[in-house]
Structure formats: C-alpha cells, structure tokens
Design goal:
- This protein is of the alpha/beta class and about 350 residues long.
- The protein has two domains: about 210 residues, Spore Coat Polysaccharide Biosynthesis Protein SpsA, Chain A (Alpha-Beta Complex); about 100 residues.
- Helices cover about 45% and strands about 15% of the residues.
- The protein contains 16 helices and nine strands.
- Strands 4, 5, 6, 7, 8 and 9 form a six-stranded mixed sheet that branches. The protein has a three-stranded parallel sheet with strand order 1-2-3, sandwiched between helices.
- Helix 1 links the parallel strand 1 and strand 2.
- Helix 13 runs antiparallel to helix 14, helix 13 crosses helix 16 and helix 14 packs antiparallel against helix 15.
- The chain is elongated.
Amino acid sequence: MMPAYNAAKYIGQAIESVLAQTYPHWELIIVNDGSTDGTGEAAAAYTDPRIRLYHQPNGGESAARNHALARSRGEWIAFLDADDCFLPDHLACVTAYLQHHPERDAVYTDGIYIDPQGNRLEPLSNRRRGPFEGNIFEQVVRASDVFGPPICVALRHHQVRAARLEFDTRIVIGPDWDFLTRFAEKYTFGYINAATCLYRLHPTSISVATNQERRRMYLALCREKAIRLPGFASCSEAVRAYAFYDLLVNLLTGHPERQQSVTEWEQFAALPRREQARLLRLMAGSALVAGVEPAFPRQWFKRALALRPTDPRTLLLVGVYHLSPALCRRMLAKRRPEVRV
C-alpha cells in the first residue's frame, strides 16, 4: 500500500523501486490523498497493470491506508510510503520468510535511513531495540522503536482481516504504531537480519512538520489505546509502569483532567501500590513545574501519601510544598524527572 499526499517529488522513485522487485507477484495500491502538486498525475504515468491508482479527498494517512486495505487482494500486506523505496529483494525476502515459517504471522527487516537526496545514512536498527521475535506485544507496547517506520514490515492479510484491523483516523503521528500494537496483541512476528528498504528523512514529512503539542496528543492517544487493550494486563510490571509513566508524565502534563481520568482506570489500579504512588508523585511534581492549577498536584500528593505513607521522597516533597509551593517548584525544576525503565 502506498498512501500519497503531495509526494510528486519522490513518488516516481518509490514506484520504480516496486517495479524493480525480483519478486514479480505483487499489486501496488496507490491512494492519492487529495494531493495538489501533481502526485496523481505522476503516479498515473505508470501503466503496469499491477499498479492500481485511487483518488480520495484529503483525509490523512490513516484514511488512505484504510482505503488501500479495502482494495487489497494479496496474501500479504506490505507498506511503502511515497517518499521511500524498497531495495530490489525486499518482497522476495519477506514472502520467502512467510512461506517457510507458517508459524509466524508477520515479519520485519532492517533498512537504511536516507537523506532527501537519497544518500545512505545509517541502518534503522541503530535506532531500535531488539530485534525481537515471536510474541512481541510487550516490546511493542513499551515503545514504537521495535519496527520504526512500517516500510520494513509485512503482515499476513488473513490475520488483518480476521482481527478487523484498520488504521485509526484520529491519529496523525503514530497510526502505524497503534495498528501494529493491535496486530501484535494477537499475532507473532519473525525477523530478517537484512537491510531491504530505504526510509527517507526530510523536513516536510509529517513526523517532522507536526508541532510538539499535537505530537504529544497523538502519541497519548496511542498510549491510551494500548493500555486499554485486554493483552496489556499480561505485560510485565515494568512495562505497564513505564507505559503509564510515559502517558501521565511525558505526554499529558498540562492536561490535568485527562491525567486524573487515567488514574481512575482499572489498569492503573492494577499496578502495585508503590508504582501508583510513584506515578502520582511524579505527576504532581511535573504539574507544579508546568504551573498547573494547584488543586491537582495537592490531590495527587495526598493520594501518593495515602498509598505509601512512609515514602521518603513523597514526604520530602509534601513537606517542602506545604512550606512553600514556589520553593518546591524551583527545587523540582532543577531536577531531572525520575524514570524507571
């Protein structure tokens, strides 16, 4: 699938990289997402019958991917954005793996970052954890750096249909992480230790152009959805605690009503009392530094003390806060946040 929005500069290279594949049995579904720069015309210049081009009003990457999913007829699903490229053996590698490993439902490979001019920079694996194989749901929940960009991933189409998976059109940053998290909850992955694709870094990409506040809100939605999945309860305590830390402290600071709501979820209550108390203390500290309405940090300090009445860090912060909220804020602003990985 190839969603394409204002990609006239690069889409020809992307299409050519599919035409150059050593594996010939593919369909390329291009969804022109309301482009205004000639993307549709550039794609229409290719007449290979394996290429199918569709046009839709601009609805975003997730809507374009869902359009492509609905049109897909192949046994496997692969991802190629209009500014990236496959290396010639990408489809041969992933299809051979899935044919010879029926116990696996998906596979991912390594790749190479390239600059706008196509110069090769470094492997995708330099910015990843892993590789992981088998049931990797916990690792995918932990962070999006298991795969990086979805260009390196191939999925069995039957499993996508069976799970009724679609991309969430509310999410602009991270829709692939959300989609692959939901896939990984049910299905297993293999790994091929070979670079088979090129992922382009450039300043007009969505991930670069989106402002930080909007980015945080999209990633917060990804986190919230992952935490609400039934499989989340099976994750280790460390991963569950980190997912809440990232959501409540990294992403939602400055949105106290939403933070408060999350701390009332049953998944939060399922954490050990010490982790609940730690998170509430960190939320309160971050809220103080951010200048959030004082009622929220006071409430979170109180809840943290109720959960762990003898915790020295909470006792210290509460004592300083009661003495002088401004002093407590200055003290916290000078300290790095406490992160437990």
